[in-house]
């Protein structure tokens, strides 16, 4: 199956080519040309299967034979063997019809590990088959960076450069990026916001001479394979609550719109999802957009859920493409308007299509802290601030529809955000044993201005890949 760009002008690519490309050459994001479907019987058959078995079926359907089946199965099994919970992504009940899907049992304690541990293996596999190398550039508001560095550290065929906003990630998040002693990974602190970092990454991809010279690739959720891997846990969670016979809703703490988009993809593939509830922090551009139809940028404020301090929600472009009948020209026009004036308007019909499947709600800093405190007191369950935003969104959804179970995506371990969690609950969350000495490890980081040419020079000087060929 081929993958097409949301902006309609780049050449369609097979799964493994889209995996290495990251962003399409027209600036768009890749999506499969058609959604593979699973029957209700097949979905019911997932009950009792391991996470890796379900992943093999779902990712196999999305990769559509482009990654050889036996190799894919082995990579999936290896990717999840190191998770600290045998279920990989277990489900915990914290209230009436209220569940947390714990996505933080991977090495860096965030949901990013679920996709990234597989992505590292997939990329290494494809690059090895082709005898190529790649230079990965990524932007992080805190979690993607650590997960990517862990998954790619030491890989011979890859150099990795991760841009994060200086002073705007938690100490644990920063140290997970800066204390890894591997010559192929580089943490770059940028004087700017996450949106600046993400804009720099996209600008490097759109600088085609640089892109080709360095063999650029990306591991942010602009990379279609990231979303594909995230689809799996929607199936495992819903099936364990009775799907496909029973509908389930999901509440998703949202920033770049990748995780909740994966839920929308699961629904397209046949999973009976009732509602997809977006929870935003006070950087509430998505909530405002669903209310008014106007996607309008404002300044980003720093919150206790820093990974969601985002205004340019990259994957929303994929949804825009779908609700506009896959019309790349319209998406190009909307994205141009965003770049030129910081806003665009969604017409009534596509907006109605979005509202038919998604709800959105903004959760303030005070409400986030109150949710952490309440859930700890009532359920004895410690939430991180991001997951707390999901729980607050779920509680609002349950008031409207108490009969449908809601699964909140628990996107990070509370110990990644100890200051906010302790302030809200009085409990100091502790890091798992493998990270116990994180705060004592030596840091290695380069501070650079928000300037594309200086960042490109740094990457050129430090990357071992030239023109995508093996050095
Ligand atoms: C802990 C955490 N929760 C939620 C999100 C938001 O996810 P997405 O950007 O896929 O919407 C992020 C960042 O991506 C995150 O790191
Ligand atoms: N919240 C993310 C931001 C980048 O998101 P991605 O899913 O597009 O990689 C982070 O923690 O870095």
TrEMBL record:
Pathway terms, separated by semicolons: Amino-acid biosynthesis
UniProt keyword annotations, A-Z: Amino-acid biosynthesis, Lyase, Pyridoxal phosphate
A GO molecular-function annotation: pyridoxal phosphate binding
GO biological process, one term: threonine biosynthetic process
CDD domains in the cross-refs: Thr-synth_2 (cd01560)
Pfam families reported for this sequence: THR4_C, Thr_synth_N
Reaction catalyzed: O-phospho-L-homoserine + H2O = L-threonine + phosphate
Chain ranges passing through the membrane: none
Lipid metabolism listed as a keyword: no
Residues annotated with N6-(pyridoxal phosphate)lysine modification: 112
Residue span(s) of domain Threonine synthase N-terminal: 4-80
Protein origin, superkingdom: Bacteria
Cofactor(s) needed: pyridoxal 5'-phosphate
InterPro entries assigned: Ser/Thr_deHydtase_PyrdxlP-BS (IPR000634), Thr_synth_N (IPR029144), Thr_synth_N_sf (IPR037158), Thr_synthase-like (IPR004450), Threonine_Synthase (IPR051166), TrpB-like_PALP_sf (IPR036052)
Assigned EC number: 4.2.3.1
Family stated for the protein in its record: Belongs to the threonine synthase family.
The name this protein goes by in its record: Threonine synthase
Organism: Bosea caraganae
Top-level taxonomy: Bacteria, Pseudomonadati, Pseudomonadota, Alphaproteobacteria, Hyphomicrobiales
């Amino acid at each position: 199956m081929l993958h097409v760009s949301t902006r309609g002008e780049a050449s369609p690519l097979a799964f493994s080519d889209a995996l290495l490309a990251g962003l399409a050459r027209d600036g768009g994001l890749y999506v499969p040309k058609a959604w593979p479907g699973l029957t209700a019987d097949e979905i019911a058959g997932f009950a009792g299967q391991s996470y890796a078995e379900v992943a093999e079926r779902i990712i196999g359907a999305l990769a559509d034979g482009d990654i050889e089946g036996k190799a894919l199965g082995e990579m999936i099994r290896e990717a999840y063997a190191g998770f600290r919970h045998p279920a990989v992504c277990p489900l915990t009940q914290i209230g009436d019809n209220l569940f947390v899907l714990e996505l933080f049992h991977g090495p860096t304690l965030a949901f990013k590990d679920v996709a990234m541990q597989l992505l590292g293996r997939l990329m290494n596999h494809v690059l090895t088959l082709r005898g190529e190398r790649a230079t990965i550039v990524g932007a992080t508001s805190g979690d993607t960076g650590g997960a990517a560095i862990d998954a790619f550290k030491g890989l011979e065929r890859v150099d990795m450069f991760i841009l994060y906003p200086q002073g705007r990630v938690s100490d644990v998040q920063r140290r997970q990026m800066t204390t890894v002693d591997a010559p192929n990974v580089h943490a770059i602190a940028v004087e700017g916001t996450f949106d600046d970092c993400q804009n720099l990454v996209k600008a490097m991809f759109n600088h085609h001479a640089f892109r080709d010279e360095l063999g650029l690739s990306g591991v942010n959720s602009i990379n279609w394979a990231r979303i594909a891997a995230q689809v799996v846990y929607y199936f495992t969670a819903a099936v364990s609550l009775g799907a496909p016979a029973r509908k389930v809703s999901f509440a998703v703490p949202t920033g770049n719109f990748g995780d909740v988009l994966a839920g929308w993809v699961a629904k397209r593939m046949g999973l009976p999802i009732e509602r997809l509830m977006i929870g935003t922090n006070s950087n509430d551009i998505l909530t405002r957009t669903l209310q008014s139809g106007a996607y309008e940028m404002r300044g980003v404020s720093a919150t206790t859920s820093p990974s969601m301090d985002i205004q340019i929600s990259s994957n929303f472009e994929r949804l825009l493409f779908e609700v506009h009948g896959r019309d790349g020209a319209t998406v190009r026009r909307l994205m141009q308007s965003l770049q030129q004036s910081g806003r665009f308007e969604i017409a009534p019909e596509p907006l109605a299509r979005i509202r038919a499947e998604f709800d959105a709600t903004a959760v303030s800093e005070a409400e986030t802290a109150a949710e952490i405190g309440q859930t700890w007191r009532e359920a004895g369950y410690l939430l991180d601030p991001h997951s707390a935003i999901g729980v607050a969104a779920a509680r609002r959804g349950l008031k409207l529809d108490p009969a449908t179970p809601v699964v909140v995506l628990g996107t990070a371990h509370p110990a990644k955000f100890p200051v906010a969690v302790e302030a809200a609950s009085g409990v100091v969350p502790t890091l798992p044993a493998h990270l116990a000495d994180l705060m004592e490890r030596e840091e290695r980081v380069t501070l650079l201005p928000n300037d594309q040419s200086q960042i490109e020079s740094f990457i050129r000087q430090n990357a071992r890949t030239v023109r995508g060929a093996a050095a």
